[in-house]
Design brief:
Elements (H helix, E strand, L loop, with lengths): L4 H25 L1 H12 L12 H29 L2
């Protein structure tokens, strides 16, 4: 079975963008809870830190995470197609 690398990359990039928006909303609405959850997920203590959420950071993060995710998944699908021959 061949994967459509472009379609998969677009689907993943769109999904990552949606998750980024939801995550950013949670950080804005519940910053303390978000900081604790991030600490638990990374086995770190972020209690002395604070979030820096601004419109430019939101947009740049959205673009960077979405593009990187799309490119990585495109590469994975392309390599999968080559190796599955």
């Amino acid at each position: 079975m061949k994967l459509n690398a472009n379609a998969l990359a677009l689907a993943v990039a769109s999904s990552v963008a949606a998750v980024w928006v939801v995550c950013s909303i949670i950080v804005v609405l519940l910053p303390g809870m978000s900081m604790h959850m991030t600490g638990y997920m990374t086995h770190s203590d972020f209690s002395a830190m604070q979030w820096s959420m601004n419109p430019a950071g939101f947009v740049v993060g959205l673009v960077i995470w979405s593009v990187f995710a799309g490119v990585i998944v495109w590469l994975i699908a392309t390599l999968y197609n080559k190796f599955s021959d």
